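Its record is quoted verbatim for completeness.
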Amino acid sequence: ARLVLRRLSARVLSTVGRRAPHRPHYYQPHKMASRRRGRARTIREPSTYANLDDAVVSHVHLDARVDFEESVMYATVELTFTVLRDGVRYVALDTRGLDIDTVRRVGGGKGVDGKEQQFTMPFAHEAFGQALRITLDPPAGTEKGLTLRIRYSTTPSSSAMQFLQPQQTSGKQHPFLFTQCEAIHARSMLPCQDSPAVKQTYTARIRVPNPLTALMSARIVDNLDGEEHVPKVKAHKDDTSSVFMFKQPVPIASYLIALTVGRMESRKIGPRSHVWAEPEVVEAAAYEFADTENYVAAGEKLLGDYVWGNYDLIVLPPSFPYGGMENPQVTNVTPTLLAGDRSLANVVAHEIAHSWTGNLVTSRTWENFWLNEGFTVFVERKIIAAIHGDKHFGLGAVLGWQALKESVDHFGEDSPLTALVPELDGMDPDDAFSSVPYEKGFAFLCYLQEFVGGAEKFEPWLKAYIDKFKFKTVVTDEFQKFFIEYFEERGMKDLDNAIDWHEWLKEPGMAPVKPKVDTSLSDESEQLAQRWIVHANSSSKDGDDDDAAAAVAAAAAANFKKDDQKEWSAKQVMVFLDVLMNASNALPRYVLYAIDQLYRFTASRNSEIRFRWYMVCIRAEYSQLYDEVVAFLGAVGRMKFVRPLYRQLAKVPSGRIVAVRTFAKFKDNYHPIAAKMIAKDLSHLDEDGAISAEQARVETLALRLDAVQRREDAITDRRNALKLRERALAQRTASIAERERVLAEQEAELRAIVASRTSK
């Protein structure tokens, strides 16, 4: 009852004196700068409500109990602030889907310690949630600092937390919980300043039901005064529950706070690494990630000491929406990496690279996200090259360039979201997520490396960059300034003008320069794919699938063999399928049947290969494989796979109803972030898979525009042909005139000779 009254009173207070309660002052975070009594805000951060120029959180202590029956977490969080000026009368925090009970002061002397603070929570914004505005009584100053204790609970709508029923796990016996706080979902796990601009240490005490284990992005300790990581989890147990304690002494951004609870076991896979997973999966995971230490060591050689102590992995249930999440010390990874041959371990190399680029050096805002991901892709491929050879750096770059093209095509080449540093005012960072910061950022760093003279000059700068900004946050202007100063001190001149910074950083579209890399491995893949495309185009068969034997025989006659890809890596197969996917026309279904008979893509355990194969088949409306596609969509929740597959199904007439019905069937199994984004992708289809009237008009206009464009192209071609003919005629006329001139000269010479002889 007390909680209900507080929520009602907060709503009443938030609307007092407002004529438009649906749009209160705190409705959009980026509006806050205009409310600061004329004082300019020192940090441009459009995705947080927090008044970061008054006070910033320096330490978090979380004391929580996980309740699987209600799918909530009951918690108390203590936030310790560094106060930046005297007379701070309020702090604003980010929340979404939280029930706030009480806010009290901690410390501050007699009459202040334990004093309840008044707070208001205006109406919620769909993406940014609600500001928790806490009135400080008395005001806070720089001398005494500020600590607040907030008692609250999450709700089933808290987007950071996914509670899984036992049937959604591998073991089918115990529930499971994992959190995913990137980009701005930490606010649905705890009240916080949910911005990468704020880095804080944290401690935690987590109570969970027996026999479950809790893990966090922190060191496991016996007590909260402990300093050392405990290799094996030690819990304080009673008859029904266990308490686990954690300490993260390195300051991190709120999106890196993570909690996982489930029936898990661990296996040692290196001197500083364990892999955690459900008992049914842990052995396969230990095999798959056995090379983890090699990746960490290669990262240290390139960038300097690994400061986090242990590096562990957790293989989560299939609904995890990403390939991996770089939570410090305990990286979360998707089970789609368990290919059985370690062919997808590069994702772990990527997450390990984040230990330096992203976790140690962090982009200050989501608009500068490329400083996390572009650098990390670059370092990841450096690590892979150090272990497997330089050719694999180029192979990864080829795949990345294709991923960048797909993202640019999806958004549109003129979309502001294809700029390396976009503006995200009023926009959910999840809506801007794509390959652009990853691959355009990678291309930029490749360009800079080439510009300064190669890796031998660029890699020392990279290490110096990490050393300069470690434990801090950084924006693109600071990166640019440090780059220019570093290389101008070493003799390079006028780098402000020699590099087109604006085109790289602010202009939309593809990267201005394609990375110059060794493409020998990808060339093999492209050549085989082009042979198949030529075979498909030259065949007289109309695409009937009835004569499967004839399809295979035709492929054999064209000299295609089962061992065409025998010596290939998984990434070479991916390049092969990417080329088929981007052929000018979809391959005939009988050709796809022959390809699958030879190379067995449908039976592959490699999720990247199956995903690409399904994309190729859906484009051709190869409906015999739709059941396989549906099963795949029901088995994985990784957005890299499920979103493009749903979008591809929605593009073809035979796939639209499949997309709608499949999403309706599996949407509750997906993570809330994934379900939200897929729903947006399919929003133009009704429940029967039909295109909405508005979308139909858009598509009709697009077809008409395409037809007009084709006619204009045809007219242009005809004009060009006429110009060529006119040029040819002019050349012939000039040639004839030249011949006539020569003949006239010869005739004159002959006449002169005849006249001379006649006179003699």
